[in-house]
Amino acid sequence: MASDGALWVYDEASFLLKKITADGTVAVQGNDLSLSVGRSLHPNFLLEREQTVFVSDPAVGVLVFDVFGQYRKTLPLLGLTEFQVMDDQLIYGKDGQLWSFHLTALLERPFTLPFELKAGCKLRVANGWVFVLESGTLTGHRI
Hints:
The chain is mainly β and 143 residues long. It has one helix at residues 33-37, and strands at 7-11, 16-20, 26-29, 45-49, 52-57, 61-66, 71-75, 84-86, 89-94, 97-102, 108-111, 122-126, 129-134, 137-142.
């Protein structure tokens, strides 16, 4: 979902990132990504935060776009199925740990957690807490 209520989609047939309004009109359309990235993409997660669109392809990494759908760069974060962006940090769970990738310094570091993240769990970080949804049970842990 875009911040203005429109919907971001990746059109695999035309290799384009598009922003679609509620009436189905294409409001924004990026450039052909097969030319910029050099391969076809198979995204599994897309998120808009703070005038930036993030698209994850597990085999390629996280592609970063401006709000006009123009490709900026690819972050070398492979295998992600979801993530969140807080300020200048991309936060995600991987290999049983919570990780942070600094979007400006391009540095990746793990968080030390008092528990292990299990495969398939969902997590969200907010206000010094990490919330974990696992097998229908939600738990909160102060970090």
